[in-house]
């Protein structure tokens, strides 16, 4: 078992997750890249990290499935024997719609992955990090969204509501485990240039709205990932229960 710190990033094969994995590897973490389906992207990311002198593994698991989450954490235990940081990045979004056009199945899927999955992953991380459970402490960063504050009207109120739940969960868990060596924070991105916009049915969304943004541009995955790494770092040692907006003033 190595003394190097270990980080698990859910949804780590692309976008903000992949950027977080790369920055974490640069910071000396051994990186666990979780992915749900894109094995090729996860494998390529692991290869890039290792070619740069880091250590990484990829683990397939759907964070909307408790048994797969449990299996993922067991694989982390076997591979590294420790866990120091968790980034709850995995999330799903659907096509733009008003509430009266959203099915119960869609609502359930978004809540199951974005909220319940994040809570279950955090639960398993707490079991390994908390001094109450014999751990040495650690840090958790949840990925929220400015949609939690804006509400997602006429677009995706279900997604926005799921991120509002993440904000509440972040604050509550932070207070719950603060005395057990675990810090829990969230990053709330605004409009970020990733593949996720295509899943809403608007792949050209950024080009359409960027002039209306305060900084006249979308953010990048790297800009969000740097905020995540800050909250994981010792530089944020007295920061817990915080929600850091990375939104370009939106």
UniProtKB/TrEMBL annotation:
Q: Which InterPro entries match?
A: KR_dom, NAD(P)-bd_dom_sf, SDR_fam
Any Pfam family: adh_short_C2
Q: Where is the Ketoreductase domain?
A: 5-194
This protein's source sits in the domain of life called Bacteria
> Keywords, A to Z?
Oxidoreductase
Asked if the record carries the keyword Plastid, the reply is no
By sequence similarity, the record places it as follows:
Belongs to the short-chain dehydrogenases/reductases (SDR) family.
Q: Which PANTHER family match?
A: NADPH-DEPENDENT ALDEHYDE REDUCTASE-LIKE PROTEIN, CHLOROPLASTIC-RELATED (PTHR48107), RE15974P (PTHR48107:SF7)
Q: What is this protein called?
A: SDR family oxidoreductase
Write down the species. Mesorhizobium shangrilense
């Amino acid at each position: 078992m190595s003394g190097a710190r270990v980080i698990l990033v859910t949804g780590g094969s692309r976008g903000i997750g992949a950027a977080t994995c790369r920055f974490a590897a640069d910071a000396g973490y051994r990186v666990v890249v979780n992915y749900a389906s894109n094995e090729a992207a996860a494998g390529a990311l692991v290869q890039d990290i290792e070619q740069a002198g880091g250590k990484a593994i990829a683990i397939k698991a759907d964070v909307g499935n408790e048994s797969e989450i449990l299996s993922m954490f067991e694989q982390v235990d076997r591979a590294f024997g420790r866990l120091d940081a968790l980034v709850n990045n995995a999330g799903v979004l659907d096509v733009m719609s008003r509430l009266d056009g959203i099915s119960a199945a869609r609502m359930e899927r978004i809540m199951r992955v974005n909220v319940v999955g994040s809570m279950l992953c955090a639960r398993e991380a707490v079991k390994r990090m908390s001094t109450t459970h014999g751990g040495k402490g650690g840090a958790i960063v949840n990925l929220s969204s400015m949609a939690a504050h804006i509400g997602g009207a006429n677009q995706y109120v279900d997604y926005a509501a799921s991120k509002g739940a993440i904000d509440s969960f972040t604050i509550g868990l932070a207070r719950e485990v603060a005395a057990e060596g675990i810090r829990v924070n969230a990053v709330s991105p605004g409009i970020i240039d990733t593949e996720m916009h295509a899943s809403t049915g608007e792949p050209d969304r950024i080009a359409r709205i960027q002039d209306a943004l305060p900084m006249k541009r979308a953010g990048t995955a790297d800009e969000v990932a740097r905020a995540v790494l800050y909250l994981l770092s010792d530089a944020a040692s007295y920061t817990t229960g915080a929600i850091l907006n990375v939104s370009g003033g939106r």
